[in-house]
Amino acid sequence: MTLLSIDNVTKRFGGLTAVDAVSFDIAEGEIMGLLGPNGSGKTTLVNLVSGDLSADGGRITLAGTTLTGRRPDQIARVGVARTFQLVRILPSLTLTENVMVPAVFGAKSHWGAAAHEVAQAALEQVGLARRASSNAGELTYIDQKRLELARALAAEPKLLLLDEWLAGLNPTELGEGVALIRSLADSGITILMVEHIMEAVRALCPRVAVMNSGRLIADEATEVALTDPHVIAAYLGEGEDA
Ligand SMILES: Nc1ncnc2c1ncn2[C@@H]1O[C@H](COP(=O)(O)OP(=O)(O)OP(=O)(O)O)[C@@H](O)[C@H]1O
């Protein structure tokens, strides 16, 4: 069954068409990569799905519910959560407090003890449960990333959007990060991940969508896409037309 449907979606910034009539679907339970050279429109597309930007044309639906035209908080309630390229945590609060906020404002609006339980479960999922009462500002970079992921999970999403969540990790951390994303996918969450680390894309995503200059240039099996001449030309041209 289709979970996310992106249908003919366009976003312009002045004279620049950052996302140009893009369409693709993601099935429930799928883990899909979103690739493309720098500036090709990947983050803009993620922002359109999460409601952080509004589309100039087209329609995005989650399990049949229209997302386009809704605010980010409304979209979170429908079941979409995300991480950001630059980690957004609340450094002066504890890990639990950080994760309670989305538990309250996420898909199921938990309160009190129930919100605390969901927050704790999300911290456990990312391996941070033992540090629940530490201040978020004291965490190392990878643990800040884990915390941001826990914030997304505490919203109990059907669809998780990861924007280069693995970027900046050392090789050991990368292995741990890949295993963590796989465990989330195994738990049934549908994932769309923007990622530049091909080793991780190969390990995690059976299928990828590839963008170049705002357009979708491939939507196919990862092994096929990575040898597709259009895709290779797009990366070699770094943003020029394939
Ligand atoms: N808020 C904005 N205002 C104006 N232009 C923008 C804005 N956000 C993005 N752009 C432009 O839209 C295009 C697509 O940017 P986007 O960040 O979506 O690319 P990307 O594929 O995510 O790149 P990267 O891999 O470097 O993160 C770029 O030319 C970028 O400069």
TrEMBL record:
BP-aspect Gene Ontology terms: D-alanine transmembrane transport; L-alanine transport; L-isoleucine import across plasma membrane; L-valine import across plasma membrane
Residue intervals of the ABC transporter domain: 4-238
Keywords noted in UniProt: ATP-binding, Nucleotide-binding, Transport
Entry-linked InterPro entries: AAA+_ATPase, ABC_AA/LPS_Transport, ABC_transporter-like_ATP-bd, P-loop_NTPase
Family matches, as Gene3D superfamilies: P-loop containing nucleotide triphosphate hydrolases
SUPFAM superfamilies assigned to the protein according to its UniProt record, in alphabetical order: P-loop containing nucleoside triphosphate hydrolases
Superkingdom of source: Bacteria
Gene Ontology molecular function: ATP binding; ATP hydrolysis activity; L-isoleucine transmembrane transporter activity; L-phenylalanine transmembrane transporter activity; L-valine transmembrane transporter activity
Gene Ontology CC: one annotated term: plasma membrane
Protein name as annotated: Amino acid/amide ABC transporter ATP-binding protein 1, HAAT family
Organism this protein belongs to: Tropicimonas sediminicola
